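Please check the following.

. . .
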Amino acid sequence: MNLELSGKTAIVSAGSKGLGKAIALGLAAEGARVAICSRSPDNLSQAAQEIQTKTGTDVLAIPVDVVKPDAITNFVDLVVQRLGKIDILVNNAGGPPMGAFADFEDEDWEGAFNLTFMSVVRFVRAVLPHMPTTGGGRIINVTSTSVKQPLEGLLLSNSIRPAVIGLAKSLANEFAPKNILVNNICPGSIFTDRIKDNVAAQKRSTGQTEESIMAAYEAKIPLGRLGQPAELADLAVFLASPRAAYITGATIQVDGGLIRYIM
């Protein structure tokens, strides 16, 4: 299937590894020009080189800390200067730290809010003036299955990520007349550094082996395995394409059947 992404320009935040890199790679493989950002210059450079080698597409890679408003604005302005427009925005960021209610002070809540929610608000605000007035655009938020089913030990994520869904649904309604489509993707247990960190934290707190913790993860998933980043990226690339022209305001999980709820 030709996804008709040749000539499109995409921003992918936290694009230096994991889900962000997989999405950027998928977009570039379909012919899109890609700009990625993250806090780590070394990881960014490595990711850009990998994407270029695999797809033959040049990648604009700029270090950005998404909790800093000016950094987001400056990054978007630079993308427009270099690439001319923005058709696709993929909001992606590392999740807040694990912990229970008693573990967090006000600064922890504020940090999680800035990372998880305000980074989306600020990226959307920055890119909207640069999305085409004809043909519209795509905004895709990578969230978590915690927006549909709270996850044990992820209080901050359970509390703040649902706000992104409410924002996205409101934006989908507001921007539909401009053909700007807004959707959310909810990763389940995808084998990324986030899973590795969670496994390490559980190992420290419980004394269990990594093998037993991973087996417990897999036992909860009807497909019996963790997902791969490319499997989530395939959905993101489809939603970014003209082939998904009648999908907006949707929240879709990629979780191997983990979430049992009907909706």
Observations:
- The chain has a mean pLDDT of 94.
